[in-house]
Amino acid sequence: MITTGRLRLHIKTTLLLLLLLLSMPISSQDTLPKYETRAIWLTTLNKLDWPKTNATSQASVEKQKSELCQILDQLQKAGVNTVMLQTRVRATTIYPSAIEPWDFCLTGTTGKAPGYDPLAYAIEECHKRGMELHAWIVTIPVGKWKAEGCKRLRKKMPAVIKKIGDEGYMNPEKKETGDYIAKICKEVVSNYDVDGIHLDYIRYPETWKFNVTKNQGRKYITDIVRKIHTAIKQEKKWVKLTCSPIGKYDNLTRYSSKGWNAKTRVCQDAQEWLRMGIMDGLYPMMYFSGNDFYPFAIDWKEQSYGRTIVSGLGIYFLRDRNWPLEEVKRQMSVSRRLGIGHAYFRSQFFTGNIKGIYDFAANEFDNHPALVPAMTWCSDAKPDAPEYLNAERLAYADHISWNEGKNNSDGDYLMYNIYASDEYPVDINDARNIVKSRVRGNSYTIKYDNMYRTAKNYAVTAVDRYGNESDAIHTKAVASSSKSYSNNGTMFRMPALPVYLDAQFYVIENTRKEIVAAVPYYKATDISTLRDGIYIVRTICNKARTHRVGWLKIHTDRTKGKGYTLTTVWKK
């Protein structure tokens, strides 16, 4: 029980903190966090953000894909590391579901397949750019009463769907509701390499006529969350479960929620979900200004229970209510100083640069990358660091390669973060040194147009699916170190084995990563039948670890016949 004295002290402390935060100048340079969630809601409902083109032919499929890639490129340049893609729309989906029909946004027709898997494609493209993808699941609302998705669900579950106005809603008080939504979430997690499930409208509709107490209503919603959490974690423990609650949890002692809050108005007990451990993070929809934002942001942080809090920014108010950009800037700055991330609602307003919000993020506030915070409450076992880091300086790029680290978690694979600096060893705690995050594989090429042309020192760390990062392996800056070997293109034998490599075999791969030759290290192989092109040469040690050692270029000289050049990264 909180005493009157303690309560007064808490209020006084909160007010002092608030005044301090608001008095500080808006700046991104006072703190450049290495770990910070920077997210975006990417809406598919009614084609609001994406897609703009109906996928009805191969050409239009490619255009739809291109539209998504253009958006993701913009988001990457602005420091976004988490994309929440609307996946379940209104009892309809953007992936081939065995439970619900295709949403009309993809083809213009509900139930019609677009000719590819948009969710799988979006995951692949996000991961290429070092971004997480969270499947955004709209839960309770199921669309217009006569819309196809709602009609099918009413036919399947007539006792569960309730009509309010001309809209259909799943009844939170029916046990089938939680079972059904959990089934959808499980389908996504089991079939796709998503990084998170993000729940939307996990609450009572604001127009709901309650026949139960608010306390009982909160128990109903919490039961749904618990079922979803169990379904997800049984499949993949590293998949985050988050949601976007109403931006004010409840009335504060000094600041009123003005009748619009999560806990009392819509029975959304979000802070309790964090305490119970059935939610990994919250993205409160803090679409307010002034004292309707800042005290409540502090409250979310104080009640985070060590989980992730990300302030949802209503940047659409830059247009709809003519907010000055300074309001959003200050919200971002205060969020950072509180140690919480920021998320933009929604993509089109951000990439459309309303009042310069995109320019501010890309060029000032988030002009250096940040990593997504680790889920240490689920697992804190760091991977072992990678080994044998090598760097080669080419005419147009630096090519680095390493042997894989050891995964000490139950996650299904490791990724790698790359750092670069003029200083040795590279300070991996300085966000300005992050070159690339979440790299799959054991090599990466850094083009000089993204860096200084002077030689850089490099560091590489391993990171698991929970976000735990290993210690770093370092290598000093090197000048160009490649050597070329040529012959008539008939037989290929690896050059002498460097002392630091424990190679038993070598393989030759084409650019599609298909092995075209596998030979004991000391033997030669016939390459006369290989087509002209570039091939990758790897060694394999007796522990089955691989190491990229060079590129094999096979070419036809019309005057001299077929030949090859091996360019190796080995340093003497």
Give the SSE map.
Blueprint: H1 4-23, E1 38-42, H2 58-77, E2 82-88, H3 118-128, E3 132-138, E4 141-144, H4 148-156, E5 161-164, E6 167-170, H5 175-191, E7 196-200, H6 214-235, E8 240-243, H7 270-276, E9 281-282, E10 285-286, H8 294-302, E11 308-313, H9 317-320, H10 325-338, E12 341-344, H11 347-351, H12 357-365, E13 387-393, E14 397-403, E15 415-421, E16 434-439, E17 443-447, E18 457-463, E19 473-475, E20 483-487, E21 491-492, E22 503-509, E23 515-520, E24 525-526, E25 533-541, E26 546-557, E27 561-568
Parallel strand pairs: 1-2, 1-12, 2-3, 3-7, 7-8, 8-9, 9-11, 10-11, 11-12
Antiparallel strand pairs: 4-6, 5-6, 13-14, 14-17, 15-16, 15-18, 18-19, 20-27, 21-24, 22-23, 22-25, 25-26, 26-27
Helix pairs in contact: 2-3, 5-6, 8-10
Can you give me a brief rundown of this structure?
The chain is of the alpha/beta class. It has helices at residues 4-23, 58-77, 118-128, 148-156, 175-191, 214-235, 270-276, 294-302, 317-320, 325-338, 347-351, 357-365, and strands spanning 38-42, 82-88, 132-138, 141-144, 161-164, 167-170, 196-200, 240-243, 281-282, 285-286, 308-313, 341-344, 387-393, 397-403, 415-421, 434-439, 443-447, 457-463, 473-475, 483-487, 491-492, 503-509, 515-520, 525-526, 533-541, 546-557, 561-568.
